[in-house]
Amino acid sequence: MASISERTFIAIKPDGVQWGLVGKIITRFEQKGFKLVAMKFMHASEDLLKEHYTDLKDRPFYAGLIKYMRSGPVVEHHSWQ
User: Fold this and answer.
1) Mean pLDDT of the chain
2) To pair with 43 at 20 to 30 A between CA atoms, which of 1, 7, 20, 53?
3) Distance between CA atoms of 66 and 81, rounded to whole angstroms?
4) Are 15 and 68 spatial neighbours (Cβ–Cβ below 8 Å)?
């Protein structure tokens, strides 16, 4: 029987990056069995964030979320489990 893998996207938000928690956060996911396949340190564009959070666009906190996510760098982490 073949094993089924699931791809997972994990974003470490600006405060996690600012507080130096990237390694600890990734370690927790790896301890749960996730395998790191890609990671990118970046400043997310407004267009990318609007696309990523499109399902939240009608919520009252949406504008604040986009502003917060643009306030500093984020780490984009792709894993397989």
Assistant:
1) 89
2) 7
3) 29
4) no
